[in-house]
Amino acid sequence: MNSKDIRTQFLNFFKEKNHKIVPSAPMVIKDDPTLMFTNAGMNQFKEFFLGNSVVKNKRVSDTQKCLRVSGKHNDLEEVGKDTYHHTMFEMLGNWSFGDYFKTEAIAWAWELLTDILKIDKDSLYVSVFEGSDDADKLGMDTEAYDLWSAIVPKDRIIMGNKKDNFWEMGDQGPCGPCSEIHVDIRSAEEKAKISGASLVNKDHPLVVEIWNLVFMQYNRKADGSLEPLPEKHVDTGMGFERLCMVLQGVQSNYDTDVFTPIIREIEAITGKDYGKKEETDIAIRVIADHIRAVAFSIADGQLPSNTGAGYVIRRILRRAIRYGFTFLNTKEPFMYRLVNVLTENMGTAFPELKEQRQLIENVVKEEEHSFLHTLEQGLVLLDNVVKQSNGKEISGRKAFELYDTYGFPIDLTGLILEEKGYTLDEKGFHEAMQEQKNRSRSASEVAKADWEILMNDSEQEFVGYDVLETKVKLVKYRKVTSKKEGEQYQVVFNLTPFYPEGGGQVGDKGYLEAPNGDVFYIVDTKKENNEIVHFAKHLPKNTSETFKAVVDKKQRQRTAANHTATHLLHQALREILGTHVEQKGSAVHSKYLRFDFSHFAKLTVEELRAVENFVNARIDGQLPLQENRNVPMEDAMKEGAMALFGEKYGDAVRTIRFGQSIELCGGTHVKNTADIWHFKIKSEGAVAAGVRRIEAITLDAVKDFYYQNNRSLFEIKDLLNNAQDPVKAVEALQAENIRLKKEVEVLLKDKAKNLKGELLSELEEVNGINFMAKKLDLDAAGIKDLSFEMGNSHNNLFLLFGTEQNGKALLSCYISKELVSEKNLNAGTIVRELGKFILGGGGGQPFFATAGGKNPAGIDEALAKAKEYLN
Ligand code: ATP
Ligand code: MG
């Protein structure tokens, strides 16, 4: 069975069991402060487990793109070294939200694996939670045990501890026992020697977990205690690549058709064979795995960058590049050449790959280029570190500096040092690393108290599209404490006019007003697990009153104008540059808007002009907002609405139309484009290969901009004595400046000539050498000219000049050629030695050299030392 059929079979099985098949959520998470990447199928359903949203489908199934490279689930260091952990993988899953529980979940998993997919029953083991005698005092999961005993022999049921068989979403929230299904794919001979049961959960590459069935029945509170959940849920996850391995009768995920085409391509590009040498094999697996993670992230809109999720992606890509560099001898970009096979292989199940192939290739190639360059630079830097070191051990802090500042990988540092016969102080490196981690961790740590529930409310309503002010009741609140924000309260209302940060748009600010007139400021609004959470510094004393919730109108209007302008800008770019333009990110603030989009070249002045004109024409056209809050996704797409890659959409969507531009959007907009007043682009530039960024302004920001410009112009005119045409006046000034410079040059030459005469008469004879050490008021070029001029008319010269220019010191040494050879004098060595007096360094040739430094006070001392060289 090929992998495509396996995926389909899984989904069909659950479809027949009345599950709704839903699309994979994006792998890159944009609106959950606790998670950067989807690391399990259940992430996109958190709101249902938490009871924040009303469940529409109680049974759901899908295949979910997951990435386990950071946070609680981090498999990165395993990947490539073993054959069954990936960074990016697909997790097949089925869910019950308050519907079926253990009985069905267990029976169906078994039916699918053994009846439908025909996995040999004798190769399967299952595990059951054994209970815990810690503070939780949980009993064994006898329910699951009894259910399994009815289908599998007792000796195939393994009792598991809390680590393996109790699943928690985080420090707080829903959790419960789980049952895992493991498969033993060793040969009959091996199986006869050692029982499979003894190898379960022992990191054996051929006895691996394939499916985890989680039974959520508790809620973990902030104080660590457990309470039963009112409704019980099922959450299962099966590793797709591992399932393929079992069904295709191979012993490594990398030998399945999910990976073999990529591996063949790596072999073709590098000329290395897979399966010959352990070191090469690991590198090939790393690359085959990482290109998937990187390609899928870029397709989801996450470009490699220097911070956050983008930095994680950059590091994954760099890990692969470095494995290639070290073990496959790839010194040129090559990973981008794998994108094509990957797309051919997975583009049907994940069309976002196909549609963005070109962009993915461009971005990967550019990253490869720049990192290979870094590697080369790093090699030079490392060489210097080695040269400057006293002993045979290189300090861990130095290595950390290379790693942290230049991105030079530590294991490569280790390897190179070893080749050169040096060792690395690894302990020091890890200490420096840990210190940095601690710093960033404590900065981002957030402590959350339990929610205080004030009233029951099934689903919160957002009324902010229509009103900016309304009467509300508080539903719940909790205190959160973080280094960054200090103490704050998160408050949920029964309904709210506050727009929560999302879709690139900032969250609303405003206030709550109590009946007695007291005011409590809302400093930000965010969405968490589909719930709108307001951030306040203080809480009202009486939380059960009815409050007036008021959104800051000015900020909202400006933000709305920028959001609508973003849509018009998007349309303008597609119209003027072409339909290859796709949104790659946006930030809609009250003061400005930022729009990232795929395009291969810098925009010309004419193009920018055309874009501005296009948008402003639509503002002048006074186009009314046409909004549809509840359209089936299919209809919206038929209408031509633009959906964004990497965004999560429901079955029903909201469409925003201004004239020809229709987009799926949850943001807030102006009622009419006339409310934008005017649109002005402030900057255009590159973000990554093939991705450009435009920053623009609207409304009062445009007025301010023109006002400032106008003011500068007036000031300039004023400085130009009220010139009628300031451009002409500036051009005249520039021309005059050039003419004056030339005049000065001539005068300086004359001055040097006179000076030369004077100086020659001051030469002193020391040991038969014509010597002079003197401070001059000339620049570097002047001193050089002068020295050579003097050299032309006198033999046996030794000149040391010092000068101070713009607060910096300069020493310059000239030695006649015959002295260099006969007396073994070297200007380069001399300035380097004397450079220490001016706190600097330099060099040059034996007959002429200069040194620069930051201490002019040391010039005299240096000059005084000069004579010593002649003895
Ligand atoms: P393991 O112990 O093998 O790391 P896990 O306990 O971390 O697995 P779960 O979190 O229960 O796994 O995830 C559910 C399923 O997803 C696993 O049974 C496995 O088949 C698959 N899976 C987990 N991590 C990975 C990974 N890094 N690469 C591929 N598949 C994975
Ligand atoms: Mg794991």
Automatic annotation (TrEMBL):
It catalyses: tRNA(Ala) + L-alanine + ATP = L-alanyl-tRNA(Ala) + AMP + diphosphate. Its cofactor is Zn(2+). Binds 1 zinc ion per subunit. It holds the Pfam family tRNA-synt_2c. GO terms for molecular function: alanine-tRNA ligase activity; aminoacyl-tRNA deacylase activity; ATP binding; tRNA binding; zinc ion binding. It is found in: Cytoplasm. Zn(2+) binds at residues 563, 567, 665, 669. Consists of three domains; the N-terminal catalytic domain, the editing domain and the C-terminal C-Ala domain. The editing domain removes incorrectly charged amino acids, while the C-Ala domain, along with tRNA(Ala), serves as a bridge to cooperatively bring together the editing and aminoacylation centers thus stimulating deacylation of misacylated tRNAs. This is Alanine--tRNA ligase. It comes from Maribacter luteus.
